[in-house]
Amino acid sequence: MPHSSMSDAASTNDHALFERIAVQLQQQGYSIQPNALSPVMADALYQYQCALGQDYFAEAGIGRKQKFHKNESIRTDKVCWIDGSSETGSQWLNWCNDLKTYLNRRLFMGLFSFESHFAYYRPGDFYKRHYDAFKGASNRVLSMVTYLNPDWDPEHGGELVLYQNDEDTTGIRVTPALGTVVLFLSEEFPHEVRPACKNRFSIAGWYRVNTSIGNKIDPPK
Ligand SMILES: O=C(O)CCC(=O)C(=O)O
Ligand SMILES: [Fe+2]
């Protein structure tokens, strides 16, 4: 039997996935990938988020960590930022970093850093139509959303609706099923989260470019 370790197999799968993402980002500016996460990674992230407990989740705001405004008319979800202090958190960040390296090599995107948080939408919670970044006003360039909901049926609601531009009122609807990953250019695609009839878990993340000027360090860290 040929020798093949778990990690070799995983990285071959990831390589094919990263290539599909790159092609779609180049052709259409977004990519929707059901079952993008390995079942092991999807389950670890799901378990991790479930174990976090309510206390870890804070009311979400608008803007980056530093410029934070609470705004309940636009969004009602709760979030918890992910760092590398846990095994699962660091595996997640490594995977996101591998994707960053791949996209930089393949598309010359110049992605510099990545930040992400778990998000928890209770039944009825929503995030109204918005852009993740405004042209020239932010260094977030690529948005990524990963869903952590086993057994999600379309009738549970909670879709992401991704619009092609300001005029688009139809959009593309994405069911937030476990393991689905969506990426889109942050300045190009308005989008919204529709209310669901049950708890909806996800990870929202953003790849950023480096816009440091002089001695102002941006992104921080
Ligand atoms: O959870 C989603 O489907 C999208 C979340 C989102 O748009 C955001 O956090 O900016
Ligand atoms: Fe968003």
Automatic annotation (TrEMBL):
Protein name, per record: 2OG-Fe(II) oxygenase
One BP term from GO: cellular response to hypoxia
Cofactor(s) the protein needs: L-ascorbate
Upper classification of the organism: Bacteria, Pseudomonadati, Pseudomonadota, Gammaproteobacteria, Alteromonadales
One Pfam family recorded for the sequence: 2OG-FeII_Oxy_3
Keywords: Dioxygenase, Iron, Metal-binding, Oxidoreductase, Vitamin C
Residues annotated as domain Fe2OG dioxygenase: 107-209
GO molecular function: ferrous iron binding; L-ascorbic acid binding; peptidyl-proline dioxygenase activity
Record's keyword annotation contains rRNA-binding: no
